[in-house]
Structures are given as C-alpha cells and as structure tokens.
Amino acid sequence: MATRTVKKLKSVDKGEYAVAWALLKAARQAAKLTQRQLAAKLGRSQTFVGDVELGRRRLDILQLYEWCKATGTTLSAYAYQVESTLDVLPKNLPKTVRAPKARAPKK
Fold this sequence. Notes:
- This is Helix-turn-helix transcriptional regulator.
- There is one protein chain.
- The protein is mainly α and about 110 residues long.
- It has a single domain (about 15-90), classed as lambda repressor-like DNA-binding domains (434 Repressor (Amino-terminal Domain), Orthogonal Bundle), CATH 1.10.260.
- It has helices spanning about 15-30, 35-40, 45-55, 60-70, 75-90.
- Helix 1 packs across helix 5 and helix 2 packs across helix 3 (about 45-55).
C-alpha cells in the first residue's frame, strides 16, 4: 500500500503574506520612490527591495521599521493597514504565488 505524503505549507505560503508585501510596495510607491531609491535610503541593494516586494525575503521588525520610516509612514500605520485589509478579506486566502528564485546563468 502506497503512502501519500502531504506537503505542509510554510507560513510564508499563506495568502495573507501577499497582502503584507503589496502594502510594502504601495508604501514605496506612495512615497514616489523607485526600488533603487528606497534601497539607497535603506543602505541595501535594489535586489533586496525587489526580493521583499516579491516575497522572496522577509523583514524582521527593525527592518520593517526602517522601511516604514524611509517611505514616510510609521510602523503602527503599516500594521493598521495590514490588519484592516486582512479583516475584510475572506479567511484562508489561497496559497500565494511567489516568484521563483533567480537561477545562475548557464555556461
């Protein structure tokens, strides 16, 4: 008898994360900053900003604070936006579609 394995979703695969990423991107766009400009304010690369917005990279609380500060908002305002958006969305959003990780160029 064959056993069937069920792949458990990681927490970042929950659809709710897409809301958080979209709001980070919206904060950057509202500040009229390009990814490159925000990256310079954060002392990071443009790739870092892009990876965060695509869900490839998570921010810890202090990085999130710096992101908010650099985009002219507050951590509490961002948290409120996330909470109020998630409160009106259906429970158990579908699994997010995350961009694949970059592959090394073929030789």
